[in-house]
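Final report, closing paragraph on structural work. Over the funding period we assembled a curated collection of sequence-structure pairs, and we close with a single example.
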Amino acid sequence: MSAPPPLLSCQALEAGYGASQVLFGVDLHIAAGEVVSLLGRNGMGKSTTIKTLVGAVRPTAGCVHFAGQPTTRLPSDAIARLGLAIVPEGRHVFPNLTVREHLVAFADNRSGLRDVWGLDRIYGVFPRLKERQNHLGHQLSGGEQQMLAIGRALSTNPRLLILDEATEGLAPVIREEIWRCLAGLKAAGQTILVVDKYVHRLMDLADRHVILERGRVVWQGDSQALRADRSLWAQYLAV
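Its predicted structure, as stored:
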């Protein structure tokens, strides 16, 4: 029996900004229920890859398929309606909406899930959001805003959840809460693509890792292989 097609795949993807090319022939695939990390030093193309996958940057070559459909030329809102949600770097929380308004305004069972991410389920994962549900976005701490950004993405019931710099700038105790949340999402079968600098934590979370170097995929493999080959760390991940 042949394996089912990946939930998301891109082949020979090239993209950039104006005359500046950033991605050079990137290949990436993510199976349903899989957690994949995208690794590499700053400026190597991780955020551009994500922006291209979600339709915020138009590729100049290559193709992207998501949920069985070609999405290379689709606008970002159409891709989102197929069941892709992103927690962007910087969170992008609306300052004048309450926590509850964020979660209600974006709620949509796009993937037709039986066990939907409603308010009670999101509050169960992030009790702090329930405590702050009547607070405005600008009244939240950075960690609370990140929880809200994840909760807002989950409220769309996505097939694929993308997190760009998942724990960037957070206090250690809040980082641990986010890692626990992501582990719980994985256990529930959520498909995830995550970018983060804490490689040790990603090795505990992700099924596979993809390393970018100057806009090219230079290595991919599982956590055991990444943990065993320290030359990869020195060559591609060390600052």
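The domain at 1-73+197-239 is CATH 3.40.50.300 (Rossmann fold). The chain is about 35% helix and 25% strand. We thank the funder for supporting this effort.
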